[in-house]
Design goal:
There is one protein chain. The protein is an alpha/beta fold. The protein has nine helices and eight strands. Strand 2, helix 3 and strand 3 form a beta-alpha-beta unit. The longest helix has 19 residues. The protein is globular. The structure holds pyridoxal-5'-phosphate. The site of pyridoxal-5'-phosphate (PLP) has 14 residues, from strand 8 and helix 9.
Length: 233
């Protein structure tokens, strides 16, 4: 069994160290506990330790877990989202990290208007251009941001990326750095709004480097809840 309390203490210490190394404040980084495939008892344990941000990657699982947790939890949709499922989560999640097409953004906008909410989203960027991953290219990202900015009831808050799997997190620094450059570029053009673009990047294996490169959200699953079963990712 994972010792969630001890894991969280270790993660917290790593976050603080990465902040110290890069001259950032701890409150500039939000820790999202990625609880996919994990039972509600483990989420409750993390909640008791002060965690309020939880990440899930499947709509069905999200729908099952939301009513079982306190209402001050902020839910993050971090997995690939199908258009026909947007309606189930639109008014229940605080941030959708995985928008990778204009068609999906249009559907989110439509449902947000219907439900009288503003949908906060991130554009998923496949920085390393891995064929196995979702996301737009760095090259196509600015145009997608500009197009989505025209839609009602949807706000692009920044970018998300899933970096390549690696044993050595230094190898992912270039991708995190590239995403930060893209965000700075967008900010300077002020395409979307006046708020600085936020970056969701860094997982269990590489969040220290991601923080050093400017991550606003890190998404940590295994490092908090332990390994997931091999059947479902
Ligand atoms: C599963 C998942 C994570 C967490 O991965 P760990 O390596 O377990 O920390 C983060 N982001 C996304 C998009 C995921 O699907």
């Amino acid at each position: 069994m994972a010792n969630i309390r001890e894991n969280l203490m270790n993660v917290e210490q790593e976050i603080q160290r990465a902040c110290d190394r890069s001259g950032r404040k701890r409150n500039e980084v939000s820790l999202i506990a990625v609880s996919k495939t994990k039972p509600i008892s483990m989420l409750q344990e993390a909640y008791a330790e002060g965690i309020r941000d939880f990440g899930e990657n499947r709509v069905q699982e999200l729908m099952e877990k939301i009513p079982l947790m306190p209402s001050d939890v902020r839910w993050h949709m971090i997995g690939h989202l199908q258009r026909n499922k947007v309606k189930y989560i639109i008014d229940k999640v605080s941030l959708i990290h995985s928008v990778d097409s204009f068609a999906l953004a249009e559907e989110i906008s439509r449902e947000a208007v219907k439900k009288h909410v503003t949908a906060n989203i991130l554009i998923e960027v496949n920085v390393a251009e891995e064929s196995s991953k979702f996301g737009v290219t760095v090259e196509n990202a600015p145009e997608l941001v500009a197009k989505i900015a025209e839609l009602p009831a949807i706000q692009v808050k920044g970018f998300m990326t899933v970096a390549p799997f690696t044993e050595h997190q230094e190898e992912n620094r270039i991708y995190f750095h590239k995403l930060m450059q893209l965000a700075v570029d967008i900010d300077s053009k002020n395409i979307d709004n006046n708020n600085a673009f936020l970056l969701s990047m860094g997982m269990t294996g590489d969040y220290s480097v991601a923080i050093e490169e400017g991550a606003a959200y890190i998404r940590v699953g295994t490092g908090i809840f332990g390994e997931r079963g091999s059947v479902i990712e």
